[in-house]
Amino acid sequence: MHFPPSPSPSRGQRNAGSLLRRRFGSAYRPIGFTFGRGQVRAYGGGGVLHVPPPGHTLAEHTLDAAGSPGAAYLVDLRAAAPPAVAAWRDAPARTRMVGPGYDPAHDADHCMTGGSLKQWFDALVHVHQVTPAQTLS
């Protein structure tokens, strides 16, 4: 789960990230979690949803192509970067949001927009493939 601060407080209801930023100030470090494809458990105890590979308009597409197949990695978005990488992380972004209303048939419609990866997060953790959460009982 990631809680980026709201890109614009005027955009409506405050999200968890903006509340955490208010509470912790400059000590707050938002870390995003992204993935390429896999399976997730549906909200509310439903079945398993098959999440397709990301479309080319999503940041996950680039993140998935950048790493070794099957690898997980951390991207420090605050660190110095080559010009092409800095331009990409600073540009307006679209990143997948899998939540209660997620429908794999309309994957590209479920995304966060309105800022850059660097505005939203201090770092990103990206994994190539995810599996459904398991009950601990």
From TrEMBL:
Pfam families noted in UniProt: Erythro_esteras (PF05139)
Gene Ontology terms: biological process: response to antibiotic
SUPFAM superfamilies linked: EreA/ChaN-like (SSF159501)
UniProt cross-references to InterPro entries, sorted A to Z: Emycin_Estase, Hydrolase/PRTase-associated
PANTHER family: ESTERASE, PUTATIVE (AFU_ORTHOLOGUE AFUA_1G05850)-RELATED (PTHR31299:SF0)
Name the record gives this protein: Erythromycin esterase family protein
Organism: Streptomyces jumonjinensis
